[in-house]
Design brief:
The chain has 117 residues and is α+β, with helices and mostly antiparallel strands. The chain has one domain: Trna Endonuclease, Chain: A, domain 1 (3-Layer(aba) Sandwich), CATH 3.40.1350. The chain is built from two helices and five strands; from the N terminus they run αβββαββ. It has a five-stranded mixed sheet, with helices on both faces. It is globular.
Length: 117
């Protein structure tokens, strides 16, 4: 299985998990010229932008470590556009979460990083 297919399979797994945890998924693979957000959903009153990272082994570090500062800034810029496009109110609480899949282990890291300019 190629890496794109494996990533898509893990994203399906993550969506099923998030749905089982009560997350209302409103969009998947939201893209613009600046990048992509894997999953957008509501966890209670929070509009959450989810980054899904998968690592089959430890050779390249953990999945969570792959979401560095550059990636965080890109996600925030895409999230800004999403909020603009969908007319989200300024006072809508937002959160940036990472769902890290290391092998068979899935870790949902809530509020994984703060908004980055």
């Amino acid at each position: 299985m190629n890496t794109r297919a494996a990533g898509a399979q893990k994203e399906e797994q993550v969506c099923a998990y998030l749905l089982s945890q009560g997350v209302n998924i409103v969009e998947r693979n939201f893209r613009n010229r600046q990048g992509e957000i894997d999953i957008v959903g509501y966890d209670g009153s929070y509009l959450v932008f989810f980054e899904v990272k998968y690592r089959a082994g430890k050779g390249k570090g953990s999945a969570a470590e792959a979401v560095g500062t550059v990636k965080q800034k890109k996600i925030c810029r895409v999230a800004d556009y999403y909020r603009y496009l969908h007319h989200c109110a300024e006072d809508t609480p937002i959160r940036f979460d990472v769902v890290a899949v290391d092998g068979a282990a899935l870790h949902w890291i809530k509020n994984a990083f703060d908004y980055q300019r």
